[in-house]
Design goal:
Layout lengths: L16 H12 L44
Amino acid sequence: MSLARVKTWIAGEILTAADLNGEFNNILQNPTSLISPFTANLNANSKQITNLALRIWGFPCCWYTGKNLLQY
């Protein structure tokens, strides 16, 4: 499931606890939508990202190494 607005707000509308909780629950219940598929670079804050599979990128001579996109 992807993230989407729970409610569209208009000027002068009052924020209720139910509306606020609904917006936060939308994010908390769909956390993978925030990162998958990647739409930007991922900063791991100097931590390792583990369990990445080695993928072949179109040509048998090229592969993803984790540091460089293509390795020959």
